[in-house]
Design the sequence.
């Protein structure tokens, strides 16, 4: 296993979703970023992002 625990791809994915969210303002892209962050930093880190999302208009 790589020294980073095999999480480099997830970190790159999180960064790409972050950029997508920044460019589009999409809370769904930010939700996807939260999942990728949870994969690398643990569920609490991902849930902190989710707690900040405004998803009231989504069902």
Sequence:
């Amino acid at each position: 296993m790589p020294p980073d625990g095999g999480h480099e791809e997830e970190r790159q994915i999180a960064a790409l979703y972050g950029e997508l969210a920044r460019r589009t303002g999409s809370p769904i892209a930010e939700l996807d970023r939260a999942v990728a962050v949870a994969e690398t930093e643990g569920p609490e880190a991902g849930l902190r992002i989710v707690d900040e999302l405004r998803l009231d208009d989504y069902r």
About this structure: The chain has a mean pLDDT of 89. The chain has one domain: 8-52. Residues 8-52 form one domain.
